[in-house]
Amino acid sequence: MCYIEITMPRPFELDPLFRNITTLPGVGPKNAKLFDKLTGGSKILDILFHKPVDFIDRRFSPVLKDAPKDQIATIEVRIERISPAARRGLPTRVKATDNTGNIDIIFFNASKVWIEKQLPVGEVRVLSGKIEHYQGQIQMVHPDAIATSEDRTSIETIEPVYPLTAGLTNKTLRKAQKGALGTLPALSEWLDDAYKVKNKWPNWHDAMQHLHNPEEGEDLLPTHPTRMRLAYDELLANQLSLALVRLHQRKQNGRAWQVTGILRQKILNILPFDLTDAQKNSIAEIDDDMKAPLKMLRLLQGDVGSGKTIVAACAMMNVIEGGAQAAIMAPTEILARQHEESFAPWLDAAGVSYITLTGRNKGKERTAILEQIASGEAQVVIGTHALFQDTIEFNNLGIAVIDEQHRFGVHQRLALSQKSKGTDVLVMTATPIPRTLTLTAYGDMEVSRLDEKPPGRQPIDTLLFPKEKVESIIDAIKRQLTTGARAYWVCPLVEESEKLDLEAAEARYDVLKDYFGSDVGLIHGRMKPLEKDTVMAAFACGDIKVLVATTVIEVGVNVPEANIMVIEQAERFGLAQLHQLRGRVGRGAAKSFCFLLYATGLSQTAKERLIVMRDTEDGFVIAEKDLELRGGGEILGTRQSGLPTFKLADLTAHGELLQTARDDTKLILSKDETLETERGKALKTLLYLFEQDQAIKRLGAG
């Protein structure tokens, strides 16, 4: 199952970049672990892709009488005398002069022998460091660099400053970086010449050298030609790899389904509402895909409550009518069981058999379920990630629907689609994704958007309160409960720690018990699935009226009677998560409220997040703002979610380059889809450089 010859070995000229960083000067096994932690890898390439964020100009070389306070300077002085520390804790002082003034060179905890060797009395030395004034005397504490006059040029340089991790100094990193730059190969150009000339971009080798040797502030800006060129390289590699996957998927034999709409109509007949125009358009787009003899690979983006599930059910009926099976995979057991509840009346109305498989099913019960899946007796299979285990065999899987895709990796969705020949794939997400991230994460897919809410959905009033007003919120909930309301109370995300989240939730639960007694329940991620289901069931039927929770209720939980959402210390949450949590209410006929409690001393970014939440419910607007505030690396919790992160590109600054890379990719593959031309071969090197070749190999295998 291969669609491009990426079976050739990695180009020989790239080998130096893939060597271990321990081959670089100053990087031993101990340091290597710190480099790995900092850059996310142990290759020389990982260091080269670690960008500087500032620089120190050591070319400034005043005489002592003109040396300004608190500025980095390089000075040439004669060593007069060394005054050792009088006692532990005091510094050693080295007196020096340049005939225009005097300076004290200060060392704490340095050996006398080392100081005498570095700064011999009577000799001239060049020092670089920060000039300070202390009690009327010029001083320099622990110079950054010391050299003889002959080696002065080695100090008077511009020194890039990098993000660091504890235990790693800029000096050590810079030394390794210089060694890494010495391994840079000359590579054939993969960019379009006219586009490169138009933008005045350097070649790749020069761009990498300049990235790590900035000379002025403008060199650090994302809009500098060097940064733009390297960002474009990374985005082009991303778009090219996704396009190759898409090309491969479309060339695979799919199945052309006869879309009669007979079973679908039986479902639509029992719905208490009409489909929105957005739902009808999405169903039409899916139908067109499924009528074609090619594998469908489509993303269905819909905000919370936009009605994705019924669209998926309609798509599933297309394959059921053709005698095949449909599967829907959810990220959690709670969500899988909820899908079962949502689908049950629809599938019953259509006369379609269904079964649910999760990790909870054991022994004989599990064996029986597997037999129904393998025989085809189960026409619709609902489940968690358990569905793509090797032990699960479908009789004839026609469509795989994957819910909350950002919780799964791309390889997991492909594993499920390969359970049967030509299986169509429909991916759903309730997490609105900005346009640029959609291109980078789902560029291999067609996209449908549900940008309307079903009729009857009332707006949610979002109100901001300082945390000191918590008792007035409790009183308001008390009044609402008498009218039949139910409330979620979400506790703060203290940090990435389940233990601390749980402690916060338990503390709030204890407080609310004093107000509401047995009407309060608690749910958190450490509970067993059965315990969570029991608490959720009690909340759904009204035995519990206030549910204290960690973010375990973020995705998928559906209790239409719940119309109050309280989020404590809302400033600790990202916009996407706040939006997901708010989406748990506003699902019934009653007026709904979301109270965001915040601590004093908010940062400007936190204030902007809360204001956005107050002013709009549009998930796509919120997602774009989230990208603007947090950047592409953090959006939607990217690092935990399977969405790509970039080392050289910044989507907030390079969004337009992404669209160009997409257009360039289309043009490239329209002329040379196997990448065999001279530029095509250079583009293969680009894929190896950004390690997209491994992604393609894995995606193309099976």
Question: Which features characterize this protein?
Answer:
alpha/beta, seven-stranded mixed sheet, disordered N terminus
Summarize it:
The chain is an alpha/beta fold and 702 residues long. The chain is built from 25 helices and 22 strands. β19, α18 and β20 form a beta-alpha-beta unit.
Q: If you had to describe this structure to a student in words, what would you say it looks like?
A:
With 702 residues, the protein is an alpha/beta fold. The chain contains 25 helices and 22 strands. The strands form 4 sheets. The protein has a 7-stranded mixed β-sheet with strand order 6-7-4-3-2-5-8. A 7-stranded parallel β-sheet has the order 12-13-11-14-15-10-16, sandwiched between helices. Strands 17-22-21-18-20-19 form a 6-stranded parallel β-sheet, sandwiched between helices. α18 (529-541) links the parallel β19 (520-523) and β20 (546-549). The longest helix has 27 residues, at 225-251. The protein is globular and about 100 Å long. The N and C termini lie close together (6 Å).
